[in-house]
Amino acid sequence: MPRWTLAFLVGMAGTSAATRWEPDERGAEQVSPGTMQVGYGDLVADRAVGVAGSLLAGALFAAASRTARAKRTAGRGEAS
After folding, report:
1. Mean pLDDT over all residues of the chain?
2. Which of 7, 44, 69, 78 has the most CB atoms lying inside 10 A of its own CB?
């Protein structure tokens, strides 16, 4: 699997989780008003940080899997 595909899949999974969080956050605000800062600015910030973090995690995961694969290949004496 190409590294960009792995980074993309991990990034999209994190983006989905960040998007799914928003209705839960809104529900918590409805149950206990005034305890959370919920608004448009918070929504945009949460999603931006969620997307950026998940894409970074995907890139790091892809880099780590490439390093692990290179070590396994080097251990067998094969060219990368």
Report:
1. 79
2. 7
* CA pair distance 28, 65, nearest whole angstrom: 38
- Distance between CA atoms of residues 20 and 38, nearest Å: 15
At a CB cut-off of 8 Å and minimum separation 6, what does 80 contact? Answer: 70, 73, 74
In angstroms, the CA 36 to CA 29 distance is 6
Q: What is the pLDDT of residue 65?
A: 80
Which among 8, 7, 15, 11 is positioned nearest to 59, based on CA atoms? 7
